[in-house]
Amino acid sequence: MADSKTILIAEDSSVILNLTKKILELQNYKILTAKNGGEVLKQVESQKIDAILMDLNIPVKNGMECTREIRKHENKDIAKIPIIAVTGNANNYTMEDFKEAGVDAYLPKPLDFDMLVQTVKQHLGE
Q1: Backbone φ and ψ of 84, nearest 5°
Q2: Is residue 114 part of a domain?
Q3: Where are the alpha helices (DSSP H) in the chain?
Q4: Residue 103 sits in which domain range?
Q5: Where residue 76 sits, what CATH number does that domain have?
Q6: How far is the C-alpha of 75 from the C-alpha of 9, rounded, in Å?
Q7: What are the residue boundaries of the Response regulatory domain, all occurrences included (predicted)?
Q8: What is the domain count for the chain?
Q9: What is the pTM of this model?
Q10: What is the pLDDT of residues 44-94, one digit of tens each?
């Protein structure tokens, strides 16, 4: 079997985090977690991450700020990690906002887990 892909879940709600983690682990992904924007940036710099599920309402730095920082990273591999925004407040953002920040895809909360798996696989080229 090929090496499993690593997905970083940036989410401050432990309920959503644990559910999402379980769903993705069932798909044989390796899961890393971050409870705030500061942790997201530390994680992407310390290990290889294949995709990020980014809650937009996380403490320290919100998901849009994190996404912008990752897109500007001097390491090109880090700068191009697929980022899937997850939010319960999509009405606060336009597709233009997502594009401008560098978001690759977007999933509304409450999460549709079939859609989550499909979106992750699509952005990992599976």
Answers
A1: -110, 115
A2: yes
A3: 14-26, 37-46, 63-71, 76-79, 95-101, 113-123
A4: 6-123
A5: 3.40.50.2300
A6: 20
A7: 6-124
A8: 1
A9: 0.95
A10: 999 999 999 999 999 999 999 999 999 999 999 999 999 999 988 877 888
